[in-house]
Amino acid sequence: EVQLVESGGDSVEVGGSLTLSCAASGFFETSQCMGWFRQTPGKEREHVGVIVTTLGTPYYSNSAKGRFIVSRDRAKNTLNLELNSLKFEDTGMYYCAARSTVGSCLDVSAYDSWGQGTQVTVTS
Prior knowledge:
- The chain contains no helices and eleven strands.
- The chain has strands at 3-7, 11-13, 18-25, 33-39, 46-52, 57-60, 68-73, 78-83, 92-99, 113-114, 118-123.
- Strands 2, 4, 5, 6, 9, 10 and 11 form a seven-stranded mixed β-sheet that branches. The protein has a four-stranded antiparallel β-sheet with strand order 1-3-8-7, with no helix packed on it.
């Protein structure tokens, strides 16, 4: 099992930038998928940016595309999420997750390791 700890959440003004980091212990690199997810009150958890580990290919939600960048640092065993041009609707709890089984990296329910989350609040 992979243990994940997120950091970097903060309050930031609209239009600003923020970088989240997810530190992993365990077999992070052997996971099939790694990614960042967001949850806001009353809504289901949704993917923001995920990476297919075998390919290194990132996939983004429509709302994140062009603004967010997900990347991994193999030396530090971290997964990072760079958030740019932040909007009010980006406010939420951001979670890092890993999926150990083969399948779609966009299937939120299939991820089996989750961090505790880090809060991002976009203000005026």
